[in-house]
Design a protein that fits this description.
Layout: H1 4-19, E1 37-39, H2 45-56, E2 67-68, E3 84-88, E4 101-105, E5 113-117, E6 125-128
Parallel strand pairs: 1-6
Antiparallel strand pairs: 2-3, 3-4, 4-5, 5-6
Length: 129
């Protein structure tokens, strides 16, 4: 019986779990072929407020909120140009925009999908309503 392949999958799964942020609950862990998911209720309060502003169409506290997000990192699913928009999630104690963002795809006030990043586009979690 070849134990190398199953063992390598286990090692990869453990590496992914260790690399995920501490705030992310166990039910938001990634599968190898999909982005992790995170429930709205488990997001930071500031991210929940930003989602509400997105649904209301603003007004947004930061000038760059609602601008096109180019997905240059290619971590989000491929979509046509101008599909994604980004919004700042306030970080308490930080005087600049910080690293937290919500990126949504589709219509501005009724997005098809939204993603949360706490590390300025290094990783994303799909927001589950």
């Amino acid at each position: 019986m070849n134990m190398v392949a199953p063992l390598s999958r286990i090692v990869a799964a453990v590496a992914i779990a260790v690399a995920l942020p501490a705030w992310m609950p166990a039910h938001a862990r990634a599968t190898p072929d999909a982005l992790p998911e995170v429930a709205v209720a488990t997001l930071p309060t500031e991210a929940q407020r930003t989602l509400a502003l997105i649904r209301d169409g603003g007004p947004f506290p930061y000038e760059r909120d609602g601008v096109r997000f180019g997905n240059r990192e290619r971590l989000l699913p491929a979509q046509p140009r101008h599909y994604y928009r980004e919004y700042t999630v306030r970080t308490p104690g930080v005087k600049h925009r910080g690293a937290r963002r919500i990126v949504c795809g589709g219509p501005a006030k009724a997005p098809d999908v939204c993603y949360y990043t706490h590390d300025h586009y290094q990783s994303f979690s799909r927001i589950r309503e």
